[in-house]
Design a protein that fits this description.
This protein has helices at 14-25, 32-42, 49-58, 61-69, 73-96, 108-111, 127-138, 142-164, 185-194, and strands at 3-8, 28-30, 101-104, 118-124, 176-179, 202-204. The longest helix has 24 residues, at 73-96. Helices cover 56% and strands 13% of the residues. The protein has nine helices and six strands; from the N terminus they run βαβααααβαβααβαβ. It has a single domain, classed as Rossmann fold. The chain starts with a strand and ends with a strand. The relative contact order is 0.19.
Length: 205
């Protein structure tokens, strides 16, 4: 039984690759929206994804410490939420990973780091490649594309570090690190299918 977790930089077409891999492997695909529904079934009081993104962006650890020191109720609630989310994420993903599936979520590799059959995948590409891909998809100029990509990179890095205290770009935490600019999408799917059960780190860059 294989579970693939896919953490992708914006501009690498990760969502489409995850969907094609799931179809090729004939397993279910669990993305951010699907996992959000499962999270709300487990804890109806959990904020919506958009609110979580905003809250994690608003509070850095330094600003949280400062807010707590002056007795901010909002800051105390934020700390409580941040303590709750890692365990909830591990529980939800652990349950999902009891069956073969593709999990498309930035932090899934960290939540399932101890899963014996997981193939943790990081999709990356040179910045210029990602800018060109983002411009084609969003129809924006180069400056807007670069700004959006760097913002998304920072947001994902902060999210994963805040939840699991790990670096999303640490290659040693993945089974495969793939530079998508060097392979066709069909070839990428073949590589990921062939990697089922592979445990040692392999960097293709």
């Amino acid at each position: 039984m294989t579970v693939w977790t896919i953490s992708a930089q914006e501009g690498t077409d990760g969502a489409r690759l995850a969907a094609e891999l799931a179809a090729a492997a004939q397993v279910s695909l669990l993305d951010r929206e699907a996992l959000s529904l499962l999270a709300h079934q487990a804890d109806p009081a959990l904020p919506q994804l958009e609110e979580l993104d905003a809250r994690f962006g608003r509070f850095t650890m330094l600003s949280l410490s400062t807010a707590i020191s002056v007795g901010s109720a909002e800051a105390f609630q934020e700390v409580e939420l941040r303590h709750k989310l890692p365990a909830l994420g591990r529980a939800l993903l652990g349950e999902a990973a009891r069956s073969p599936c593709v999990i498309y979520l930035p932090a899934a590799f960290a939540a399932l780091s101890e899963h014996p059959s997981a193939v943790h995948v990081r999709l990356s590409a040179p910045l210029e490649y990602r800018i060109a891909a983002y411009r084609r998809e969003q129809l924006v100029d180069r400056r807007c594309a670069e700004k959006a990509l760097k913002h998304d990179d920072h947001r994902k890095q902060m999210w994963v570090k805040s939840l699991y205290r790990v670096d999303i770009d640490d290659a040693q935490r993945y089974s495969l690190v793939l530079d998508v600019s060097r392979f066709s999408r069909d070839r990428l799917v073949e590589i990921l299918l062939a990697a089922a059960g592979v445990q040692e780190a392999l960097v293709m860059a």
